[in-house]
Write a structure and sequence with these properties.
Order of helices and strands: EHHHHHEEHHEHEHEEHHHEHEEH
Low-confidence stretches: 1-28
Distance between the termini: 28 Å
Helix content: 25-40%
Mean pLDDT: 91
Structural class: alpha/beta
Strand content: 15-25%
Radius of gyration: 21 Å
């Protein structure tokens, strides 16, 4: 087992430099008299026309344009309604336009440009060393109404939680916030991802409760856990081949799950019973791969959890069901 030393200074593993922003467009290319809202609408039109792909924090051109516009103007990203009528100088509008052109020309997810993403309203640092966090498991940790489904399987004996395939550490942080009396291990095979996770653990002041561990699956984890969270690589080979460029900007190891998307999941379900306490549960995200999951595990007793995307994205497995 390799523990990651959280006592290191925050800049012990500094993030890579932010790529230079493209030169601002020449004066006159942005209409005079822009307001924040009219600028957002104009930039949304450019994103839509360019055919960029969404899904890394936003689902449409308007929301993506609002995110990048407000970020570049130094305004809160959730403040569009309050600042919609505020005027924007031509100079500042050109800076926004340059960011939108960078998004279009590089096809980088917006989170890699802003170096920030949110889950359940909680901000997280992110860069190209890890996948952009977007797990539906976050809803079961941060939304009280949806979280009741998971809480029904936990109790006073829930003390140890594992976030496997932690990436930038966001689910580990949300779990520590949701369950203040619980200790959390956050494991990943990628040293780069763990360096990013360290930034977020320190950012949220959780270094005493979250331990970062380098591990290939469960191999380096000697403990038994009351709850294992896992958003693994599960994208099947055909879907990987068809991914938009924005998704190809992310580390492939965090996405690719083999021919049917179940390579990592097969290994996990085989090993999980030995790493769960009696009464322990595994919360597993499989995205749009339910058909492949059920084909791979036709007799497995599964509890499907309701999230905003429906009841076939996240499932719960008990230790007893896995043992059978």
């Amino acid at each position: 087992m390799t523990d990651i030393d959280l006592s290191e200074p925050a800049d012990a593993h500094p993030p890579p430099p932010i790529p230079p922003v493209a030169s601002p467009p020449p004066p006159g290319s942005v209409p005079a008299g822009s307001t924040v809202l009219s600028l957002v609408e104009a930039m949304a039109g450019r994103l839509q026309e360019a055919g960029v792909a969404f899904g890394h924090g936003t689902t449409n051109a308007h929301d993506e344009a609002a995110w990048l516009t407000l970020w570049k103007l130094g305004l809160p990203v959730d403040a569009l309604d309050e600042v919609a009528a505020s005027p924007v100088s031509a100079e500042r509008a050109r800076l926004v336009e340059a960011v939108i052109e960078e998004r279009i020309s590089t096809r980088q997810p917006a989170a890699y440009i802003t170096r920030e993403a949110w889950l359940q309203g909680v901000p997280f640092y992110v860069d190209e060393r890890c996948i952009v966090p977007r797990s539906f498991i976050a809803e079961l940790l941060g939304d009280p109404a949806l979280g009741m489904q998971l809480d029904a399987w936990l109790g006073a004996d829930t003390h140890h939680v594992l976030d496997l395939c932690t990436g930038n550490g966001s689910l580990a942080v949300l779990a520590a916030m949701a369950y203040p009396e619980v200790d959390v291990d956050a494991a990943d095979i990628s040293p780069d991802a763990l360096d990013v996770a360290r930034i977020n653990v320190q950012r949220h002041g959780l270094g005493e409760r979250i331990r970062l561990i380098a591990s290939d699956g469960l191999t380096a984890l000697p403990h038994r856990y009351d709850l294992i969270l896992c958003n693994p690589p599960y994208v099947n080979a055909n879907s990987m081949a068809a991914l938009p460029q924005e998704y190809r900007a992310e580390p492939e190891i965090a996405l690719a799950g083999g021919a049917d998307g179940m390579d990592f999941v097969r290994r996990l379900l085989k090993d999980a019973p030995n790493h769960l306490t009696p009464g322990g549960v595994l919360l597993l995200e499989i995205g749009n791969e339910r058909e492949f999951f059920e084909a791979a595990f036709p007799r497995l007793e599964v509890v499907w959890m309701e999230v905003s995307a429906g009841a076939d994205q996240v499932l719960l497995l008990t230790r007893e069901a896995l043992g059978r």
